[in-house]
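F.,

This is the one I mentioned.
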């Protein structure tokens, strides 16, 4: 304290000119700061108060861990439970306890949670630690209810013949599928390979239903896919989550679903829930079409069925089981396809300019002779070998042109490629690197960059995985961005606040497979690694109209085949799929 006082006196004595002679107007200073972007009296972030391990309820943590496991998959391992327990303990802000105490708490809580699980394996079957075989009665009951609701629709006989749909450009499969989607059948399932013209078929079905006086509502598993569908179909679309939310369904951060009754207090807004708004009410006989239904998770599907069952609406699921499944507990589309007497298949491809390649993608989708398919891809010049990861990234970054797309297996791979591609674009003068903001991936964002928003925000006007081109960077780090989606007559421009940019926006020159499903581009590059699923490979090789290339780090074709054999299996598709 004495030392600090002496230093302050020395400063005043030795540097008298640094002391202001007049203090001026504090109000004037404040105005200058506000003009520069300073905002006074911002709401303070609520800080989680620190607690001790003794303050945590073991049973509650164990229950929440199982809720999270159930939201992510139909079956899981002990290690999955332990991971969720550790995450919850971290999130509660526990003061750093002695390592032995923390380890004992996590072990005890994990054991308690596992004791509440049941195994889907036969009673005498071995249960290796790496095999996902644990589930809960809640998961089994939810899947059983989903099956029952779908089965009750699938077995209803509808009198009368289905009207024929005739439009120029439709092949026979598309015409039959459009007719059944436009019909009054309680449940319809349409499946088509990538490039089979599912969107064209849906457009014809909507017009046919409208001619018969029936309305069609298109919803999708994600807001991003809904934006794409709206652009291609020219009709209003929304996510399934938005529709069921309007009908009172709510879900928390652990993936636990509840439903509000009219008159209940909405925990999100604190207001009284009055039921769905007029635009979200379903009419009896209205057709609800779920596009990209393979990505629909069980909880959302069950909520949707509860809504359509009460309102008397009919349901059509359109998708492709060979493409990416739901991020969470999936299998709804698979269950519906297994229960329905007939799945309407679209088998002719319209997307690809090379007929031979179109047939190759169908063989890839069927999964017959994977080794032979890989050799055929290589024979077509579509497999590119690189000596190491650095060479691969450099080659892909150099080849990227406007309109091309790049898919990877992991966010880390995506970040590395995005950084390299951005460097190339800065050197080429396509991106400004002077006035920049920082995205959620820690990379700079400047004027001219292609970015992706990662959280739905109705106030800002953006959707998760929507892509934008940066028009201007504000002094406070905010961004003015233009919708990069092609085909729009008027491309929207929105302002992304600095806080949103820092937490929910990042570069989008490369993306994971989930970021590109439902999109098409002239050219696609896919990075093959042991972290990429078979569905991810199929999606990456079917998005490009003119060219699709597979990049792999390998010394020769034999090594490349070994990497291809290591591609992982897809995510959860239901309890029965795990057996």
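My design for it:
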């Amino acid at each position: 304290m004495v030392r600090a006082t002496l230093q302050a006196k020395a400063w005043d004595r030795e540097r008298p000119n640094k002391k202001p002679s007049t203090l001026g107007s504090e109000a004037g200073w404040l105005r200058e700061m506000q003009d520069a972007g300073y905002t006074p009296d911002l709401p303070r972030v609520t800080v989680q108060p620190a607690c001790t391990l003794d303050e945590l309820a073991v049973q509650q943590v164990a229950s929440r861990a199982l809720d999270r496991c159930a939201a992510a998959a139909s079956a899981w391992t002990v290690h999955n439970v332990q991971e969720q327990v550790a995450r919850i303990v971290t999130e509660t802000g526990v003061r750093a306890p002695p390592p032995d105490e923390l380890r004992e708490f996590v072990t005890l809580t994990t054991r308690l949670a596992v004791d509440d699980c049941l195994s889907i394996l036969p009673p005498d079957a071995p249960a290796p630690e790496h095999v996902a075989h644990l589930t809960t009665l809640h998961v089994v009951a939810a899947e059983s209810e989903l099956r029952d609701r779908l089965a009750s629709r699938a077995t209803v006989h509808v009198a009368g013949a289905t009207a024929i749909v005739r439009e120029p450009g439709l092949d026979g499969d598309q015409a039959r599928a459009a007719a059944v989607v436009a019909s009054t059948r309680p449940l319809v399932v349409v499946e088509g390979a990538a490039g089979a013209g599912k969107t064209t078929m849906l457009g014809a079905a909507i017009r046919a239903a409208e001619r018969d006086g029936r309305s069609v509502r298109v919803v999708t598993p994600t807001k991003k896919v809904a934006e794409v569908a709206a652009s291609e179909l020219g009709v209003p679309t929304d996510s399934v989550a938005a529709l069921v939310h309007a009908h009172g369904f709510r879900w928390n951060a652990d993936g636990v679903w509840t439903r509000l009754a009219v008159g209940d207090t909405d925990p999100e807004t604190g207001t009284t829930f009055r039921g769905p708004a007029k635009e979200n009410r379903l009419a009896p006989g209205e057709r609800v079409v779920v596009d990209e239904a393979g990505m629909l998770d069980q909880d959302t599907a069950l909520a949707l069925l509860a809504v359509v069952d009460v309102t008397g609406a009919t349901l059509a699921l359109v998708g492709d089981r060979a493409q990416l499944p739901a991020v969470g507990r999936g299998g709804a589309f698979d269950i519906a396809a297994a229960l329905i007497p007939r799945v309407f298949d679209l088998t002719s491809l319209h997307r690809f300019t090379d007929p031979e390649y179109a047939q190759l993608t169908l063989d890839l989708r069927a999964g017959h002779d994977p080794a032979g398919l890989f050799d055929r891809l290589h024979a077509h010049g579509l497999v590119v070998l690189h000596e190491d990861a650095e060479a691969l990234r450099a080659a892909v970054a150099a080849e990227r042109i406007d309109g091309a797309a790049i898919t990877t297996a992991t966010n880390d791979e995506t970040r590395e490629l995005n950084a390299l591609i951005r460097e190339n674009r800065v050197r080429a003068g396509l991106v400004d690197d002077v006035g920049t903001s920082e995205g959620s991936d820690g990379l700079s964002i400047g004027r001219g960059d292609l970015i992706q928003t990662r959280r739905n925000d109705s106030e800002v006007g953006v959707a998760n995985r929507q892509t934008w081109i940066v028009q201007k960077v504000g002094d406070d780090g905010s961004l003015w961005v233009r919708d990069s989606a092609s085909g729009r007559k008027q491309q929207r421009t929105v302002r992304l606040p600095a806080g949103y940019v820092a937490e929910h926006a990042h570069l989008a020159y490369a993306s994971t497979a989930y970021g590109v499903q439902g999109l098409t581009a002239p050219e696609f590059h896919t990075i093959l690694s042991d972290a990429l699923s078979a569905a991810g490979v199929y999606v990456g090789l079917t998005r490009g109209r003119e060219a699709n290339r597979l990049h792999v780090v390998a010394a020769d074709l034999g090594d490349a085949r070994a990497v291809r054999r290591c591609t992982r299996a897809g995510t959860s598709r239901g309890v029965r799929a795990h057996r």
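The two ends are 70 Å apart (CA to CA).

Talk soon.
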